[in-house]
Description:
Blueprint: E1 10-15, E2 19-25, E3 30-35, H1 41-44, E4 54-60, E5 67-73, E6 76-81, E7 90-94, E8 100-106, E9 116-124, H2 136-139, H3 146-155, E10 158-170, E11 175-188, E12 194-195, E13 202-209, E14 221-228, E15 231-234, H4 240-252
Parallel strand pairs: 1-3
Antiparallel strand pairs: 2-9, 3-8, 4-7, 4-9, 5-6, 5-8, 10-11, 10-14, 11-13, 12-13, 14-15
Amino acid sequence: SGLSQEAGSVEQLSLHCAEGSLEWLYPTGALRLRLAPRLPPTTAAIKGGSPRHITACVKPTGTFRGAQLYLEREGVLELLLPEAPRPRARCFSWLPQEKVALFLQATPHPDISRRIAAFRYELRGDWLARPALPATSLGACRPCNDTEILMAICTSDFVIRGSIRSVSNDAELQESIIGVSAARIHRQKFPLFQAGGRSGRPMGSIRTPLRCGVKPGPGTFLFTGWLHFGEAWLSCAPRYRDFQRIYEGAQRARQNPCEFPVD
């Protein structure tokens, strides 16, 4: 709470967890949040190679008021979230040797009415296979190539075989929401898809950037992707018959990175 801070003071905090949230009541002065995720040694650098980037994302709550959030990189401030921002995630990356922090600065107001500057954050050490801003095929609006598809089935947070029920667009958040009916759940780290509706099939939704222009279409797909602030985001989604061909070809060549049930 800012009620325990003096105007103009800067309180220092460290964020070590992979994900979490911060809620600042009655913002006063500033908070400096050092980003220091506890990473396995292998994610900080590749022996004999280049150091890997660390990626963080922040997403404000719909009631974010009373402060502005900046990224502090090597002493230079960059505005991430203005006061009363849209509830959209902002992501950024840095190298392990760089010094970065989040600087949450209270904005002056003539009254002392209740304001809350609250946001969620995710810190990841190895996002080489994941887009900094979730999208189809590593951040680009294009179909995944064969290698990306084979890696996606091995490493994604969810792998769902199913069909598209609907596509709706959210112009404010610049997101498309794909309604999916699942024929088989190969993997899901959290219960994103649950049984419901007349068909009894598990249903769920997957998001992708609006600019990708996703359209509803017939057929069976293999949806893969990542969890981002508790929501499913699309990575690769080949037609299932195309995936079967790709996987069986890799299996014959002994180049499949993991075993996957194909029928």
